DNA sequence: ATTGCCATGTAAAAGGTTACATGATTCC
DNA sequence: GGAATCATGTAACCTTTTACATGGCAAT
């Protein structure tokens, strides 16, 4: 079973969800399109890790609500006990900065400004989310609290770097 | 042309390299195996972006040393002027932390300790590299300096987070 | 009216990993 | 003697993206 499959089981460890919900929820951790998720859900059901119930909705399309079976829960905890694969990041910006000598310095500055903006947006989003959890006492599990804080750490450090890099390029270093 | 192709052109903007060299050099920015790189190099040559020269080595296997053509250099600077795709990260650890309720807390602590170790190793490596550049006055281009610093920023923030998370789990928060 | 969200699926293409294949040299 | 490095390639497989396909409801 591949990592995305375990990812789907991970999401379902909280509550039953539709494929559509799962697709949205898994994005921050393991980006995937619906075309990849629906077939995997069918496979997970064939293999006995999940089951589904058809929920008829009057205003919206019917949906399949998937939930973990005992076998699925077992598979999850067994997977948790094994070491995690090293993270993989692919960022076009790195490559562009690497060969920035080849282009117009203004292009590189624009790229960095875009990255600054991107990080700021992410930070606003995560700050809003974590305030929701703090104030309104939402269903914040220990895992989500850890991941939230990591996102804040990592986007902040990327933002700091990008701003520093812009200063360097403008000769203010 | 895909991003890996531009990545290869980016590496070649510094100097001519063999496919084997390129495979190693591109790893930090855009992980790829040799089986993906060799066919792409052939294609880039067919399309006129690079050319190669056969270099015979007495002690080691012969190699093809690839270099940018004018067309390749043009393609690079045109690519630099366009916005970069958003970065993509896939980290199994995120998923495991997300559903950590399902498993033994000791498993999660072990995973975080492994991540701490991983970050420390990376930091040691990047610090060594950047000292090399600083002291021995190596061929440090502006791009490489920026990327080096980013690596230090990002691994440090991941390390800080993982150590904070371990404290939280041990109830020292 | 058109865009966007909800909801599910399949098919084709592109991107990426693992395995197969070869062979000399160097280091332990 | 066995593993690691250098060096290039192909084939099979798995993963991921893009495109095809459908259709109702809500909001601007």
UniProtKB/TrEMBL annotation, chains A, B:
Domain Transcription regulator PadR C-terminal, by residue range, is 89-170
Query: Which Pfam family would be a valid example here?
Result: PadR
Signal peptide span: none
All copies of domain Transcription regulator PadR N-terminal, residue ranges: 8-77
Task: Identify the PANTHER family for this entry.
Answer: TRANSCRIPTIONAL REGULATOR YQJI, TRANSCRIPTIONAL REGULATORY PROTEIN
The molecule here is called PadR family transcriptional regulator
Question: What's the source species for this entry?
Answer: Paenibacillus whitsoniae
């Amino acid at each position: 079973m591949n990592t995305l499959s375990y990812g789907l089981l991970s999401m379902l460890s909280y509550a039953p969800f539709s494929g559509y919900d799962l697709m949205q929820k898994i994005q921050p951790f393991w980006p995937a399109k619906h075309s990849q998720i629906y077939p995997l859900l069918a496979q997970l059901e064939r293999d006995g890790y999940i089951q589904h119930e058809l929920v008829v909705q009057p205003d919206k399309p019917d949906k399949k609500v998937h939930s973990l079976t005992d076998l699925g829960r077992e598979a999850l905890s067994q997977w948790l006990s094994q070491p995690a694969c090293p993270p993989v990041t692919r960022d076009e910006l790195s490559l562009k900065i690497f060969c920035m000598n080849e282009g117009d310095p203004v292009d590189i500055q624009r790229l960095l400004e875009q990255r600054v903006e991107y990080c700021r947006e992410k930070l606003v989003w995560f700050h809003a989310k974590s305030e929701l959890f703090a104030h309104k006492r939402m269903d914040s599990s220990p895992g989500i609290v850890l991941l939230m804080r990591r996102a804040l750490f990592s986007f902040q450090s990327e933002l700091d770097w990008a701003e520093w890099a812009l200063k360097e390029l403008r000769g203010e270093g």
